[in-house]
Structures are given as C-alpha cells and as structure tokens.
Amino acid sequence: MILRKMEATAIAFSGGVDSSFLLYTACEILGNNITAVIFSSQVIPQRELNNARSFARSLGVNLHELSFDIESLDFFHNNPVNRCYYCKKHLFTKLKEFALKQSLPWVADGTNWDDLNDFRPGCKALEELKIRSPLQEAGLKKEEIRFLSKRMGLSTWDKPAVPCLATRIPYGQPITLKKLNEIEQAEDYLHILGFKNIRVRHDNHTARIELPTDYFEDVLNYREKIVDKFKSLRFTYITLDLEGFRSGSLNERKNLNG
Predict the structure, then answer these.
(1) Percent of the chain as helix, strand, coil, to the nearest 5
(2) pLDDT by residue (tens digit) across 92-104?
(3) Global pTM?
(4) Domain range summary for the chain, segments of one domain joined by +
(5) Are 101 and 137 in contact (CB under 8 A)?
(6) Do residues 52 and 91 make contact, with C-beta atoms less than 8 angstroms apart?
(7) 165-256 has which fold?
(8) Measured between alpha carbons, how far is 119 from 130 in angstroms, rounded to an integer?
C-alpha cells in the first residue's frame, strides 16, 4: 500500500539486502514508474557496483548512476563523527535534483526499522530532505526482509552488509584515495580466499582484520599469504581482531571517547 501510493519513484539502490528487496517489490507494484539510482564513487567497492548493476538489469528497471568524487568534499577528507550525515545530505540532494528533472515526485531508500536503533547520523539528513523509507514505514526489520527475500527467490537474501569503505577508517583520521584503495584490495583478497562478512579496518599503518570467529583457524592457515599481500599494500602491521566481526566496531572508540 505504501509503494502503490507513491507512484513514480527514484530508489537509491546499493545492491544490498534491503534496497534489493525494495527495488524488486517496487518493480512488481509500479513497473516502469521506478528508476533505480546507483551512487558511484571511490568509497564503493567495484565488486559491489558491478553486482548492483547486474541485479538492476536483471529486473529490467530504469537504471541511472550518479557519480561523485570524494576528493571534492572537504567534510569527507576530515572524517568527522557525523561524516555520514554530510555525505547523505550531499548525495540525496543530488538525487532529489535528478528526480525533479525526471518528473519523479518521490525519492526512496532502503532504510529499515532496525536502523532506528543504530548510530546512523545519515538518517537525520534523509529526514531533513523528506526521503521516503518504505521498509521502515512498514516496520520491517532486517531478518524479516531476509526471510521475504528468500521466499521471493532473491539471490541477495543472505548477502552480508557491505557499507562504504570509509567506515573502515577511524573517525578523525583523514580519508584518502590511497587508504580506500588499500582497503578495497585487502578485502578483495580475503574474498578471493573464500572469506565472507569481513572488514579490514585501516588504522594508520595497521590493518585490523575482522571476520567471524568460525574463520579464525582457516585464516591462520593462510597467514603467510595474507601477510605477504597486505605488506605489498604498504601495511606495516597486520592483526586479527580476537573479538571477531561486528558491524560498526569503530563506534566503540567513539563511545569510549564520550
């Protein structure tokens, strides 16, 4: 009912579980009145951009890409705690301008109900810009979205979350293209080795690997290869986080600092 009332809509599409479910459902209800918009920049892993493009094309949906260069955004380089707010404000302002030119009255994203309970300064920007979040409006939580996606036969139903690469760098440390490239190459290598749901946190010259504790024995079997690869990326120290993977772990430092 929410989507049916929205009619023509531009949907911010990342290729993740939530936005894939939203895009698929919107296409089923509104058909050609939907346009999927992918944000393309240096903070989005190339593999994720390719996956998002493939998924959108498989639906036959109208597809558009909005590119932006993080080097032109001072707030991004400085990496403040509320970086996500400024980023979302910038991106969705551009998306609203695009939607207006295309005569699309609504702009929507894949924010879900669970996001209300997490540290997400970007949500404030969405609220200020009056971006619709149909999944959140419907009260849908992540596990419910995964369940419905699986029932619909969507390949994304069990896909791990892949936030932008800037989230691997502690707040206050400058974000550079060099760091983003090192993070992407390091994570790509771990994916090649078969590891999923991983993060490589970039803390100055240290690479801190986060992955599920079930992988610990396996990752140590690849220790020499991982060290060689990460050293080639100019990391001085390569560490394994003994707490294992947890989303938003860099917020722990923010909380400690008050």
Answers:
(1) 50, 15, 35
(2) 999 999 999 999 9
(3) 0.91
(4) 2-151, 165-256
(5) no
(6) no
(7) Alpha-Beta Plaits (3.30.70)
(8) 19
